[in-house]
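Entry for the shared binder. Reason: the reviewer on the internal report wants the predicted structure included alongside the sequence.
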Amino acid sequence: MKIGKLNWDDLKYIIEENKTVKREEVRIRNGIGEDCSVIDFGEYECVLSTDPITGSSSNIGKLSVHINSNDIASCGVEPLGILVTIMAPPNTSLDEIKSIMKEIDEETAKLNMEILGGHTEITDAVNRLIVSCTVVGKGKNGSAVATSGAKIGDDILVTKYIAMEGSSILVHDHEKRLKNILSEKEINEVKSYIDNISVVKEGRICGNFGVNSMHDITEGGLLGALWEMAEASKVGFIIFDDKIPVTEPTVKICKEFNIDPLRLISSGSMLITTPRGKELESILKDEGINATIIGKITEKKGILIKQGESIQVNPPERDELFNIN
């Protein structure tokens, strides 16, 4: 099988065929595009999400905290705790594991999250370090936003710039090669993207604003996230390539590796739908968060307008991070 997320059709089949028990307390349950489950506990509800870090050899402690916290933030609630599992090959040093946990502690402190527990194991079942985390969030009953809430006519917004995470990973892992196309200033800029991959702030703002749908843009990039949102919401979309925010260093990096920035892992950028796009765009910018309206939710089909051409968006097979050459 190919490296990366499981094929969308196969994943959908597996999810739908393995739902024997459905508890009445579960308000939002697993499905394509839904990264969180929401459990009703009366006055409050618990939001849960889990993800591993597999595509990076650098900053894995930091990434593991933020990609999971971002899932919780995409429900518009605050992450409060994290469970951490580290699976390390036999050649791993104790200092490496200490460094990962120090990174996790530093990043959770920034978000006022507690490390609730987890598991650490040395095993020959893996050939590189794997960090997998589960994050717990808490919100008032009925407050969590679902990915599946996008409505026809909604504006589609993205925050910050797409492909920041993927660009940072590639610079950290292939700096020598990229020095041929990027200046030292650009390399340092892209390395700093890793410090801006949290979407907790915009998630909280959008939750209070009352958006219809949110989805953090991770593996599969912007087009993957849009496809997931549309699939979950049973709608379509139209977006415009020339409106999508992407930095010049990211464009250069993607050209060097012959990959598509629209399909590159993009933690740090939130996908949002709301009928009041201009109002939300202004609020986010006032809070220091770049926000851009890139299109609209439509009745059916996902369409990208690029250089005047209408291109139908299909589910990506895998993230572009696994396609570099």
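Summary line for the report: The chain has a mean pLDDT of 92.
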